[in-house]
Design goal:
By secondary structure, the protein is α/β, with parallel strands linked by helices. It has 3 domains: 1-42; 80-292, P-loop containing nucleotide triphosphate hydrolases (Rossmann fold, 3-Layer(aba) Sandwich), CATH 3.40.50; 296-467, Ribosomal Protein S5, domain 2 (2-Layer Sandwich). It is 26% helix and 25% strand. The protein has helices at 51-56, 86-91, 112-124, 145-154, 170-180, 205-222, 241-247, 294-298, 346-360, 385-396, 423-432, 461-467, and strands at residues 5-10, 16-17, 33-38, 80-81, 96-97, 101-106, 136-140, 163-165, 184-188, 225-231, 250-255, 262-270, 278-284, 287-290, 309-316, 319-331, 339-342, 367-373, 405-407, 410-411, 417-418, 437-441, 454-458. It binds thymidine-5'-diphosphate (TYD) and magnesium ion. Thymidine-5'-diphosphate (TYD) binds at residues 106, 108-114, 283-285, 287-288. Thymidine-5'-diphosphate is lined by residues 106, 108-114, 283-285, 287-288. ATP binds at residues 106-113. Residues 368-468 are annotated as: Lon-protease-like.
């Protein structure tokens, strides 16, 4: 029996349901459900499904899959090669892993194609990636080869042996990739691809899922590293995000405000490295330039101390980084004063203000509170708590904190200041950039202190307030 089966898939979130409806029950999107045809169910192998029967003639049957004892399997070290673009290698966990699939997401125009073209050129020039035919195959589904060539020229890249393929049919792409056997396959973008097996339009969840699945299979079978470019919809999600994120090994997201000259690439998932690792780039007319010392750029040093500004030592992935947290507190004309956080978690800000009231005795119920991380950086860790509260307090009192002060620490609901991971590392980063004092959780101060830095260890919010 090879009856075609169909299912209904939401184009926004990828959720599957047995029947059509006008609104996705999972994500709530309207008019996003589409019918897809599923491949016919594999006919059951004779005997394979029966539990009792399988036990009886186990040794004799050759069609059973082999079982291995975990203890007898030798662990295999993944093969990893640095591309030569250090910030990209950093977010990948130390270079490109053979046979891995990397999804690079981000808004249109943020720099995905630029980064991948630069990376392709670097890989192509790198003898470590030398292959029998070509080291990189760049599949362009959005731009013509002429446009890519123009871009390469503008970026000042040496074209070398870089191979381009302008194609969007996955069957054609895989046939070409099989013949060329490149070490690295770049797909720009996954939303332009289609498989002949499906009738839906390119970019629909069923197409994205099916073509990506075929590319993942290809990567694993041929040990090719595959980069998939994925555009983010205006709601901030990749088309079919659940589907794609689960299928690939590594997910990188481009961050950064469109007006800012910096681009951050964050690893939000990585089977081969640390998550939240951050690669920092500066945008120039000759492409993305690596920033190996991000503290230096995100820190706008004020000549004069400014109220509402606090320097936070955050840690993204494996690297400590200094960023400036700003707050503005102002008398509110509204019955419900505003709380707005940019680059920080909104709910966390509301919670911190409650802690400040309850345990610090300072109420903000008639004040608008705005908080912002300078430079378009997004801080996701709780170590920012104390810096945010001190910035709020500094603005509220209109009293500036010393310019050579750095802060980090988590604030608990009981008003306690909790230690955060890698305290000494953060303190050393602050000292390295010329900071002279630091208000930090008591548990984070190493025994001998940190050279050149006066630490002010605190256990409670009260102590922290008294310290400033
Ligand atoms: P592009 O890489 O095409 O973005 P995406 O592939 O994510 O849609 O970049 C968009 C535009 O910005 C493009 O015209 C090139 C320009 N650009 C620079 O001039 N310098 C840069 O460093 C970057 C990243 C982009
Ligand atoms: Mg592009």
């Amino acid at each position: 029996t090879t009856k075609n089966r169909s299912a209904y898939v939401c184009n926004n979130c990828g959720a599957q349901s047995p029947k059509w409806s006008g609104r996705c029950a999972d994500c709530g999107a309207w008019n996003s459900i589409e019918q897809v045809t599923l491949p016919p169910k594999a006919t059951t192998r004779p005997g394979a499904g029966g539990y009792a029967g399988a036990a009886a003639g186990q040794a004799a049957r050759a069609d059973l899959s082999a079982i291995h004892r975990l203890a007898e399997i030798a662990p295999e070290q993944e093969v990893r090669r640095p591309s030569g673009i250090a910030e990209l290698d950093r977010v990948l966990g130390g270079g490109l892993v053979q046979g891995s699939v990397v999804l690079i997401g981000g808004d249109p125009g943020i720099g995905k194609s630029t980064l991948l073209l630069q990376a392709s050129a670097a890989i192509d020039a790198n003898p470590a990636f030398a292959a029998s035919k070509s080291s990189v195959l760049y599949v362009t589904g959005e731009e013509s080869p002429q446009q890519v060539s123009l871009r390469a020229q503008r970026l000042g890249l040496a074209p070398g042996g870089l191979n381009l393929l302008a194609e969007t049919c996955i069957e054609q792409i895989l046939a070409t990739a099989a013949a060329e056997a490149p070490r690295v396959l770049v797909i720009d973008s996954i939303q332009t691809l289609f498989t002949e097996a499906l009738t839906s339009a390119p970019g629909s969840v069923s197409q994205v899922r099916e073509t990506a699945a075929q590319l993942v299979r290809h990567a694993k079978l041929t040990e090719t590293t595959v980069f998939l470019v994925g555009h983010v919809t205006k709601e901030g999600a990749l088309a079919g995000p659940r589907v794609l994120e689960h299928m690939v090994d590594t997910v990188l997201y481009f961050e950064g405000e469109s007006g800012s000259a910096h681009r951050l690439v964050r690893a939000v998932k990585n089977r081969f490295g640390a998550v939240n690792e951050l690669g920092v780039f500066a945008m120039t007319d000759r492409g993305l330039r690596q920033v190996s010392n991000p503290s230096a750029i995100f820190l706008s040093r004020h000549a004069e101390p400014a109220p509402g500004s606090v320097v936070l030592v955050t840690r993204e992935g494996t690297r400590p980084m200094l960023v400036e947290v700003q707050a503005l507190v102002d008398q509110s004309p509204l019955a419900n004063p505003r709380r707005l956080a940019v680059g920080l978690e909104q709910n966390r800000l509301a919670m911190l203000l409650a802690v400040l009231h309850r345990h610090g005795g300072i109420g903000m119920f008639d004040q608008d509170v705005f908080a912002n991380v300078v430079g378009g950086v997004r801080v996701t860790e709780t170590a920012a708590d104390l810096a945010v509260l001190l910035a709020v307090l500094s603005s509220f009192r209109d009293r500036a904190l010393p310019v050579d002060l750095a802060v980090f620490g988590e604030v608990g609901l009981a008003g306690e200041i909790r230690p955060v991971p890698n305290g000494p590392d953060r303190l050393r980063e602050a000292a390295k950039h010329g900071f002279k004092q630091a208000i930090v959780p008591k548990g984070n101060v190493p025994k001998g202190g940190v050279e050149g830095l006066k630490t002010l260890p605190v256990l409670t919010l009260r102590e922290a307030i008294d310290a400033v």
